[in-house]
């Protein structure tokens, strides 16, 4: 019975990839649901999910994936990566709803995206020319932030002779060191947490640091400190727009610290990219639209699209 469920999860992932889907949802009382081109579509023929099926799937995924094995809290609000027999990597989020287990599976690209594949606007060339400071990629969940960040890291990896350190939970894209050295650290596997890894990055002769999420005051403080000490720091935020990004970061701190952090963030922030996915003209897919505010090293400000 266990092999049957593993076969099914691999079949579902294969189906999703074949039909250019981005996500798969497994929920108690429903058949599997996939998200294709932004729309949720139920799948027939796989059976309605019950607790036994979902728990069996969880056991196999935790055993084969990079999750923290065991029971209890490890099965609640846990992220991990799962690699299929074909070698595709997938991010799986495990959570509970109304007492039942649930799974959200993000189908990651089989290869690291490139600038040309994403058709990134020319302003990204200016972003990659930055030597230090904080760069934020913002947008709603599922807007392609991780894909854009991956393309930026790979482009710098190919062009520049740098030491790039990524801090992720979990690792999504795997990079091969090219002109740069790329070291990838996974929270819970290679390091205790984001903040600890950021502090360590300062002792690792790092030039560029990618931190997957700025979600607490200690992590934000360490990211800003890394930018102040000469690193180029990239991260993503689940907000949209420059002002919203700054307000979000400052709002993480207690009121008595907010003025000081506002000054520090404002002095280190070099670029904010706000992106969203919109339907393509033919309605057969989605494409990213970008708004960028960039402050160059010489203090000049660049906006994209150009404001008139």
The description of the largest β-sheet is:
8 strands, mixed
Helix content: 25-40%
What is the N-to-C succession of helices and strands?
HEEEHEEEHHEHEEHEHEHHEEE
**Count of helical stretches:** 9
* Overall number of strands: 14
In order across it, which strands form the biggest sheet?
9-8-10-11-7-12-13-14
Helix/sheet category: alpha/beta
Rg result: 20 Å
Percentage of residues in DSSP E strands:
25-35%
Measured distance between first and last alpha carbons: 63 Å
Task: Please characterize this protein's 3D structure.
Strand 12 (269-279) and strand 13 form a beta hairpin. The chain has 308 residues and is of the alpha/beta class. The chain has nine helices and 14 strands. It has helices at residues 2-18, 51-64, 115-118, 123-128, 145-159, 194-201, 217-228, 242-251, 255-268, and strands at residues 21-26, 33-36, 39-42, 78-83, 89-97, 100-107, 133-138, 163-168, 181-186, 208-211, 232-237, 269-279, 286-295, 301-304. Helix content is 32%, strand content 29%.
Give the helix/strand layout.
Layout: H1 2-18, E1 21-26, E2 33-36, E3 39-42, H2 51-64, E4 78-83, E5 89-97, E6 100-107, H3 115-118, H4 123-128, E7 133-138, H5 145-159, E8 163-168, E9 181-186, H6 194-201, E10 208-211, H7 217-228, E11 232-237, H8 242-251, H9 255-268, E12 269-279, E13 286-295, E14 301-304
Parallel strand pairs: 7-11, 7-12, 8-9, 8-10, 10-11
Antiparallel strand pairs: 1-2, 1-6, 2-3, 4-5, 5-6, 12-13, 13-14
């Amino acid at each position: 019975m266990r092999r049957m469920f593993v076969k099914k999860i691999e079949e579902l992932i294969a189906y999703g990839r074949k039909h250019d889907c981005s996500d798969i949802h497994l929920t108690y009382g429903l058949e599997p649901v996939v998200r294709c081109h932004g729309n949720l579509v139920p799948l027939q023929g796989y059976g309605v999910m019950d607790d036994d099926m979902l728990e069996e799937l969880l056991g196999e995924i935790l055993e084969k994936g990079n999750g923290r094995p065991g029971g209890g809290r490890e099965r609640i609000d846990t992220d991990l990566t799962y690699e299929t027999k074909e070698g595709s990597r997938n991010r799986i989020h495990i959570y509970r709803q109304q007492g039942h287990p649930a799974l959200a599976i993000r189908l990651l690209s089989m290869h690291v995206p490139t600038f040309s594949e994403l058709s990134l606007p020319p302003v990204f060339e200016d972003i990659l020319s930055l030597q230090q400071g904080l760069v934020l990629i913002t947008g709603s969940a599922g807007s392609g932030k991780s894909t854009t960040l991956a393309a930026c890291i790979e482009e710098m990896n190919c062009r520049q002779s740098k030491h790039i350190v990524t801090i992720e939970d979990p690792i999504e894209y795997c990079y091969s060191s090219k002109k740069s050295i790329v070291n990838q650290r996974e929270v819970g596997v290679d390091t205790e947490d984001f903040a600890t890894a950021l502090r360590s990055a300062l002792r690792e002769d790092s030039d560029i640091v990618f931190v997957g999420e700025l979600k607490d005051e200690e992590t934000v403080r360490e990211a800003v400190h890394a930018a102040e000490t000469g690193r180029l720091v990239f991260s993503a935020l689940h907000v949209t727009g420059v002002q919203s990004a700054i307000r979000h970061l400052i709002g993480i701190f207690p009121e008595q610290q907010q003025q000081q952090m506002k000054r520090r963030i404002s002095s280190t922030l070099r670029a904010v990219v706000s992106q969203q996915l919109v339907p393509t003209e033919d309605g057969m897919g989605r494409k990213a639209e970008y708004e960028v505010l960039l402050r160059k090293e010489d203090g000049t400000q660049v906006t994209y699209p150009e404001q008139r």
